[in-house]
UniProtKB/TrEMBL annotation:
It comes from Neophocaena asiaeorientalis asiaeorientalis (Yangtze finless porpoise). It is found in: Endoplasmic reticulum membrane. This is GPI ethanolamine phosphate transferase 2 isoform X3. GO terms for biological process: GPI anchor biosynthetic process. Pathway: Glycolipid biosynthesis; glycosylphosphatidylinositol-anchor biosynthesis. GO terms for molecular function: CP2 mannose-ethanolamine phosphotransferase activity. Keywords: Endoplasmic reticulum, Glycoprotein, GPI-anchor biosynthesis, Membrane, Transferase, Transmembrane, Transmembrane helix.
């Protein structure tokens, strides 16, 4: 049976998508949540245990505080408050921490450390997962039980000012609000002034119970300048003044109220040394949290070592403080120092309510909850508590009552910690069965692609699928039955908790049949390959391929990189791997060029440039004719031409210098953006250029880069596209001036800063115009099949449109990355690939290597903290989900996308050259080899990564950028703050 190569490729893609989808479904664990929902918010609280006595405490305890103010400072790292910066820039806060009526903590935020999941953790007490990073694109209404919803239901009046994420999560919850956008991270002044301007008025009012303030300026400074910027100190001083104003106002108001007020100063996440966040470094997860109230005892001395708590603990504490039920899905513990000064009965009542809530959540999510140590400790605590209440109601005030109360309190605290730990472990459990099935599917696709390579390279346009023997057919029939039995065994032993076990039997059976069919296809291909080995040795494939040092380097580099993914340290420092591979590739090309130039025919078979090679255009046979046999013979005779010495003058020297020019460009790019884990905090040219003191230098560099981009791109464009490119690049500079990144030559500073919406949309018009012109050329080439010029020009114009879009989205200090990428592509095309006649497989791998290297040259890393979310909002005055997602994804993967686009252009232009590879079966051979090489390389990396992550699923902290899992499930991190 013959299967067309197109059909075969389509089937492989569909099956791989299914495999990756199954893996991701198991990779993202189901959250720990209460199945009773929020509709039972009026249900009675758990009664106080009384050991047979009649207790008079069956309702919720009264609130502990009259008013609560939550001052959330985005990216408030713990050392900004408790370190040297806090002492220097936040004197009032430091005084409260050391000697005031406050409790200080370092609150640990679990990854992902981005704003929307952190707000959910603070208000619900639950653990959001990495899937919430995707939902962070456009924060939906929070339906999970939370403190804000409970407070509103209890009649509390809530006012909010700050990040509009809160307004989206809690619509119709605030009696008054003013949301500020976090889209434009270059704004760190007005975004906070819009919050503070409401304070004087609202602090004088008495018609509110909860006030929430979310300040974004500190986070924006981190994104633009990093944690070492002098702007950090000024912003901390500003926040200290705001805190002092709120605290003094609350203290003066307490004279007229019966209950004290509570002021909570906290951060949603920290800030990495590079200024971003999202991953799990200490700087990103450790945030400051200070609870300030006159109800707390003043500290007698200097306290500089705050205790560690979980960020999820705030939800339970606020609920107790406001007299509300604890959110049903909360896994946090009551921050005990808040109630430590209360009578023993109240302390035990608060702890009992918390443990009851956690035990119910454990029963709903863990089938074997009775075996959990936390549940056993809870039962012991409840029994002891009942005995204490019975003694208390008998008015026994002896020392026995006090000692028993202390013992019950310790038992409750131990039970709380154990219950919370059990629920946290449950939230991190993965569906290993679904992950394994997905991995098997991807591995089978990889095996089929590898086995199909020899047949494709033999020049066949179709793939032969041999019909199996009867015995082999019987085996293939038995395989689904065996897999079905395995499926039943797994599902019955797992208690039906796996995703595949929850599917209908017909669907699950289809997956088992698919796995069996693929396995049989692999075995059949293996049998056919061994059986036809002798025939293939007599009739070798017609593709011109041979081993060389360069081929060996490409093979070892690709395999070595894949194997390096087995170590977390290599994943963290993957940029160094690609820098090394690209530099080594340049040295190997230098060796090959010099050997061809100076050794000539004394060496092994060479690829040598010709003096008459057309580097820029599309060299072809005589006009209007396809390459005939005479041309083929001429080219075939020149397969082993004279050495490189035939070149004379500038061309010869450019070929000899090209590897060194590329190495120089790579070295400059490496100094522009430090990335990875070990090197991210090092100073680089990017931070120097983006500092306010060097705006003139950045403007000059950006202008030069834009001119280089125009010169390098326009030469193969039509006149209309050249004009559009020129105006588009000019519009990009105007856009950057409008938003305050750059300066015009006649400007000394930017006073009138806008969002640049008009300028950006002006550029988008030219981008769409260039893309339309290129697409029209491609469609025209489909009608005129022999007109290769129209096709290549159309492809190049599409590529030019993508370059213009990239120039708009990249930050100004990254424009040299784009310009030098075009320089390297031009050098490689004119002086390396064409003169040395590299085959399609080698050119494809080189494009892939350079694309990966440029991903990191942009400043990206394998941490989600380095995703530039501001690119998704260029030219937008409101959030639009699909465009924002696409723009951010394109900006993040600009390097790989542009190098892949250039590969298509290069191979298309080479297909029009009069060479044997471009004809009939040769064309098929080259294209198939290209496809199999690129796809197989990707599959090796993907499968290795999937398998390794299945063995170690807690590598979530190493959120991969260009690798398979994250590129499939997280296109960007929009609106991360």
């Amino acid at each position: 049976m013959r299967l067309g190569s197109g059909t075969f490729a389509a089937c492989c893609v569909v099956i791989e998508v299914l495999g990756v989808a199954l893996f991701l479904r198991g990779f993202f664990p189901a959250p720990v949540c209460s199945f009773s929902g929020t509709e039972h918010q009026t249900e009675s609280p758990a009664p106080e245990p009384s050991a047979g006595a009649i207790s008079n405490w069956t309702k919720l305890p009264p609130p502990l505080f009259s008013k609560v103010v939550i001052m959330l400072i985005d990216a408030l790292r713990d050392d900004f408050v408790f370190g040297s910066k806090g002492v220097k820039f936040m004197p009032y806060t430091t005084y409260l921490v050391e000697k005031g009526s406050s409790h200080s903590f370092v609150a640990e935020a679990k990854p992902p450390t981005v704003t929307m999941p952190r707000i959910k953790a603070l208000m619900t007490g639950s653990l959001p997962g990495f899937i919430d990073v995707v939902r962070n694109l456009n924060s939906p209404t929070l339906l999970e039980d939370n403190v804000i919803t409970r407070a509103k239901a209890a009649g509390k009046r809530i006012i909010f000012y700050g990040d509009e994420t809160w307004v989206k999560l809690f619509p119709k919850h605030f009696v008054e609000y003013d949301g500020t956008t976090s889209f434009f991270v270059s704004d760190y002044t007005e975004v906070d002034d819009n919050v503070t301007r409401h304070l004087d008025k609202v602090l004088k009012r008495r018609d509110w119970d909860v006030l929430i303030l979310h300040y974004l300026g500190l986070d924006h400074i981190g994104h633009t300048s990093g944690p070492s910027s002098p702007l950090i100190g000024r912003k901390l001083s500003e926040m200290d003044s705001v805190l002092m104003k709120i605290h003094t106002s609350l203290l003066s108001e307490e004279r007229e109220t019966l209950l004290p007020n509570l002021l909570v100063l906290c951060g949603d996440h920290g800030m990495s040394e590079a200024g971003g966040h999202g991953a799990s470094s200490v700087e990103e997860v450790n945030t400051a949290m200070i609870l300030i109230s006159s109800a707390f005892e003043r500290k007698p001395g200097d306290v500089r070592r705050p205790k560690y708590i979980q960020q999820t603990d705030l939800a339970a504490t606020l609920s107790i403080g406001l007299g509300l039920p604890i959110p049903k899905s909360s896994i946090g513990n009551l921050i005990f120092p808040v109630v430590e000064g209360k009578p023993m009965r109240e302390q035990l009542r608060f702890l009992h309510l918390n443990t009851v809530q956690l035990s119910k959540l454990l029963q709903e999510n863990v089938p074997s909850y009775k075996k959990e140590p936390g549940f056993e400790q809870f039962k012991v605590s409840e029994r002891l508590h009942g005995n204490w209440v019975r003694l208390y109601l008998e008015e026994n005030s002896s020392e026995v009552l006090s000692n028993l109360g202390s013992k019950v309190r310790r038992q409750y605290l131990d039970a709380l910690r154990a219950l919370s730990l059990s629920l946290s472990r449950q939230a991190a459990q993965y569906d290993v069965y679904s992950m394994a099935v997905g991995t098997v599917l991807v591995l089978e696709v990889l095996a089929l692609l590898l086995l199909s390579g020899p047949r494709a390279l033999s020049g066949k346009a179709e793939l032969d699928v041999p019909l199996p023997s009867p015995a082999f057919s019987l085996l293939c029939y038995l395989l689904p039955l065996g897999l079905a039995a395995l499926h039943v065994t797994v599902c019955t032993s797992a208690g039906g908790t796996c995703y595949l076990c929850s599917l209908p039997w017909l669907t699950a059976g289809g997956v088992m049949v698919l796995i069996s069919t693929l396995l049989c296809a692999v075995l059949s291909a293996l049998t056919g390959m061994f059986a036809g080995g002798k025939r293939l040795s007599k009739n070798p494939p017609q593709c011109n391929s041979r081993s060389s040092e360069l081929d060996l380097l490409i093979l070892l580099g690709t395999v070595g990189h894949t194997l390096s993914l087995g170590a977390s340290s290599f994943i963290e420092e993957e940029p160094q791997t690609w820098y090394f591979l690209v530099n080594t590739l340049c040295l190997a090309l230098c060796h090959e060029i010099y050997r061809n130039c100076f050794l000539g025919d004394d060496c092994a078979p060479q690829r040598c440039p010709h003096a008459g090679e057309d580097f820029d255009g599309v060299a072809a046979a005589p006009q209007g004719k396809s390459p005939g046999p005479d041309v083929w013979e001429l080219d075939r005779a020149s397969r082993h031409p004279s050495p490189l010495g035939v070149l004379r003058g500038p061309e010869r020297w450019m070929v000899l210098a090209s590897p060194w020019l590329i190495l120089t460009c790579c070295r400059l790019l490496r100094s522009l953006n430090q990335t990875g884990v070990q090197w991210a905090h090092r100073p680089d040219l990017g931070h120097w250029l983006t500092s306010p003191d060097h705006k003139v230098e950045l403007s000059v560099l950006a202008a030069v880069s834009l001119i280089m981009i125009f010169v390098l791109v326009q030469k193969r464009c039509s006149l209309a596209s050249k004009v559009a490119m020129a105006f588009g690049l000019l519009g990009i500079y105007c856009y950057r001036v409008a938003i305050g990144n750059l300066l015009f030559p006649w400007q000394q500073n930017n006073k009138d800063i806008s969002k640049g919406i008009t300028e950006a949309r002006f550029v988008y018009v030219f981008v769409l115009g260039i893309l339309f012109t290129g697409t029209k050329g491609l469609l025209k080439s489909q009608i005129t099949a022999d007109d290769f010029t129209v096709k290549t020009v159309g492809l190049w114009e599409i590529y030019s449109g993508l370059v213009l879009l990239a120039a708009l989205l990249l930050r100004p200090h990254n424009l040299p990355v784009l310009a030098l990428s075009l320089v390297i592509q031009t050098i490689m095309t004119q002086f390396v690939w064409r003169p040395l006649r590299h085959n399609a497989a080698e050119v494809t791998v080189m494009h892939y290597w350079f694309g990966q290297a440029f991903f990191y040259f942009q400043g990206n890393s394998n941490s989600i903290a380095t995703v530039d979310i501001s690119a998704g909002f260029v030219g937008l005055d409101a959030y639009v989900e699909i465009p924002a997602m696409l723009l951010t994804t394109f900006a993040t993967y600009t390097g790989p996308v542009l190098w892949a686009s250039h590969l298509v252009n290069f191979l298309t232009s080479e297909a029009s050259r009069p060479a044997p590879e471009t004809q009939a079966s040769g064309t098929l051979c080259l294209c198939t080899k290209l496809t199999s090489t690129s796809v197989d390389g990707a599959k090796v990396a993907n499968c290795q990564l999937l398998r390794l992550r299945e063995l170690s699923p807690h590598w979530l902290s190493l959120w991969k950028g260009p690798q398979s899992v994250s590129s499939e499930c997280v296109k960007s991190k929009h609106k991360e703050e």
